[in-house]
Amino acid sequence: MDIDLPDTNGNGGRNQLNNWIAVSVALLSAFMAVTKVKDDNIVQAMLQSKSDAVDTWNEYQSKKLKQHLLETSRNQSDALSVGVAPEAAARFREQIAGYEAEIKRYQSEAEALQKRAIDFEKNYDTLNYRDDQFDLSDAALSLSLGMMAVTALTGKRWLLGVSWIFAGTGVVMGVAALVGLHLHPDWLTKLLS
Question: Kind and range of the H or E element at 28?
């Protein structure tokens, strides 16, 4: 049971200010905890997407290299087939036809890999957009909490108002990141990156 005693030191306004600060800190800390969990999950997904893109581009390069080697072999076989006996020319034509079939297979596989790699990169960019939102939210909320600490020490009410402006910005960016809204100050993220 709480008993309210009269304030004999004239600190009633100061206690009320500290109560506002305490409630604000508790709410913002809880919000930051939730957004941090989601941000960490997004960073993990970004790492996986980037890894998948790199692996897929490596596989693409491998297919293109094999295709190039087959094209070189085909061209050599074609050059060697000129002026040879008809039986040898027939073997060269069979060999060239085999090369052509393999070249077409590698071309189609490389095109599919290229599309997959580009999709992984687009997914990474989409996730990075949301990660930037969470980072901006975290920065604004951290500034707000720091200002609230100074407010508690100094008792300056106007500083609490300024800290709430930063808190509002942080909450808006955090909610935008959580629900996938397209709210992204590009100029600020470019400045900070």
Answer: helix 12-80
